[in-house]
């Protein structure tokens, strides 16, 4: 066996820059090819060409001084990069093809994940052997012949993509806030085609010598930035990239040009959105993908883009210019393979072995994987390609290799299974692979001795920590191995508390890597030398004295790009709770491993010390582990070896939310004193304790039996204590106590999240716990999963963290004769001088009261006596109900027209009880039961037959305990209901009484009837225009009136069969309603004055009972009792999407925050539906079960604009076209 030497000193163990940090790229010495996604081609054949990742591309192109360049193991790249920078050769910005608005370019809409409409080409182009008629341009540095999926399906994944792609710089880019521009156009102008053909012929001087393009497509990303998750304390990055892609083609062939100007690439990768606060950076991808990965008949290819320093600068001889032939069906062909253009001499690479293919080497689609492995093996004798190489058409991962004596396998048949750094040996019953000198491994996977290695993986788990349950899925694991001295560093980020801190003692999670890459003593082999990169470790750990048990499974899935080991970890079980501000010290240990041809086993006892301030406690755990793998039966591993861990550390970084382990280990032969270790009866099962009593190890073979916490002694066993029933639990507010054997569990109510102590629950929207903008601009919403989301209030726009005022005046919401005043979060309208009205409606000239007043004042010479009559006018110019002769005390009541109401004259000392005369004289308020006003805050009001119910909201959760009857209306059937936020007044329709009524929410308010009609159903209040809209299913009408019932008029009385729900958008002045005509159901819209009537939705609907307009998302949404769907659309009918497809029998619906709330006739209750997921999150079933009808939300504020209090009669509105 080989000896890789003694371990180097561990001095400076903590200060060496080898820790796998989660921050900048500079902290990871080499990120080229790094990816968090599955290896390309996992599970199916794929077809793509990945040219290189951005850190390597950066070697090609000049970059601004001072930017870090990744590069452990890339000295050749850095040397050439330095040479390129020294001579300053690069494409200047004038070298880009002309672009921008002056050339007629279209500009892609700013945003994070935008795509252009499909641009219909003047003539079809040949791309990958197919004809393409349209091209799409995406924000994220890509062009395709089909529209893009959501960025989460391709941006953070490695090549290949599932759709055709041309990628000059595929990364998570963002042009929000007009940060950068993306231009595109098709062009057939002579100057553009001549410049393009010049670049093409530089890359293909022979084959493209006669190529004459007839058309070009040009896409330019100018000063675009990387996506950032901004908070109030961060500023946008100033690093911006500029690059261009040109597709030049004619009827027969197509070439693509990638152009990177000098200083154009200031960043080389972007951070994945789902990074769990880990500061990792994924390099950009540059290349091509066929997008036909589901077609197993299409094979891919393998080629290397560069193999010499000259080829580093470009593949055309022009720095920053890359050219590719993409018209063929078999492969993408890079330029530069036909010899250099005359002006750019280039030396071909040397090949010591005859028959080795020269660069470029695009293998045909019929090249087998075995042939490609041979090609790689031959190339391995020479310096590796310095740019990058990529393999496409990766077949699904093969099962673990096995050796069968029944059907002998030989090296001649299967040498491709061996690593390129291994040799193959035939045996009597099969063959084995063995790593060459200076490499180590099991022959199938070999790594260079003494080198630094990395592991990437995902960790999932389900843990019970103390009394809390914690789940986590696919959080990141990264390990960094210093092979020269056996050090292994592990970082796991994103594990939620309190699980992350409780995992501190579980050192074996990182200890696996210490065994895999331990420093080998003479005659010994570490784990990787035996198992290679494909194995499964099963670990069981039992903690003492608590007896908590946890299982860990770690599965290695082979080596990925750059020899990164890929690993999946699953943790399940129970671990002891650790409080905050404690540290865990791990005692150095030795561990025996026993080996067979396919398994490794080990067991042992470990001690650790928990330190809190000046106090400490020594605890222990027992572990059993085995590693299964497929080994070579012809090589016998050592029977036993001893792993010695000289130093072991575990810490939790609360600032970065990262759990870290560090170990320094060596492996050698088993010592004589380790042959027969003393085993406690607690560990070998020979004790006499009965479950659930636990055996507590003592000195040597001594032990005691103890009842664990949560149990009481009972004979030889223990009896469970019900902490919840006996009041012994410590569950905090907003939590529920659940008894479990030996303990209890505190589970948070919906919308709350666990606090750090594992017992209390907190609202993520409490002050200081959320990043939302101040409360006058945004609100925090507790999601059902315990996380908080931020949402800007109406009148503001943004992501909820940053909210800026919306200038509503830009949409001209006021009357043409009014002036709009923008205010923070709102706006107001005021009629111009000479006009009267509320700003939304203005009429020319003064109304009667003002004219009469001015006339009398002129008659009195401007100075009336104290007993002379001067008309009293309200702010709108109308007569006030009470009129008097100056200060004489003689007063009377008048109608709105100023006409005196007979019998109301009074003497001095008595004031007549004048009432507003705006309601129709035939309809007087009818006494009803008083309103029981609710408390402040947001709540739902729902109609239930003869009553109106009140259901408060706690965030978006239904506070069912606070529900009660708000208003009892005997003999009524309340159907439609809505709320006026300005005067705090509720309005409802009554199909039994055939009326519309209202009542205030103030103490002592009394319901009053304001309108009588045929069969009212839906109802909507416009709080800005002080207007009321309703549907009448008896007369088949849509009508409107003022909120007091006056100035009533019909908007529509034709083409209506069964009008039901109605909604209004006050800010934009639009009206929406449903018609559940069973023959032709539809949803229609018009302006609030009845103009521009049109059908929005008429397909795939059945009984659209409920309708709501969301002022935050500007979406119109409906609940359909026929299709059982909850759907939404934009106000113009576009963007229709399905939210939920399994409703029961909805009747009415309202939108609030991130939830919908609808009444349901099957459940006879209120149902809550999450807008984002469509899931049912809660329901309220009143004790008195009967059908629920209308529902509305009562806000503590008004969404939208303000009006100048100057109302005018509505009969003038239609004349003015308002």
TrEMBL record:
Residues 846-914 form the Thyroglobulin type-1 domain. LDL-receptor class B repeats lie at residues 1026-1068, 1069-1113. Disulfide bonds join 884-891. Residues 451-677 form the Nidogen G2 beta-barrel domain. Its main location: secreted. GO terms for cellular component: basement membrane; plasma membrane. It comes from the Eukaryota. Keywords: Basement membrane, Calcium, Cell adhesion, Disulfide bond, EGF-like domain, Extracellular matrix, Glycoprotein, Repeat, Secreted, Signal. Residues 910-924 have a biased composition (Pro residues). Pfam families: EGF_3, EGF_CA, G2F, Ldl_recept_b, NIDO, Thyroglobulin_1. It is found in: Secreted, Extracellular space, Extracellular matrix, Basement membrane. Residues 333-365, 902-932 are annotated as: Disordered. GO terms for molecular function: calcium ion binding; Wnt receptor activity; Wnt-protein binding. PANTHER family: NIDOGEN 2 (PTHR46513:SF15), VITELLOGENIN RECEPTOR-LIKE PROTEIN-RELATED-RELATED (PTHR46513). This is Nidogen 2. The gene is NID2.
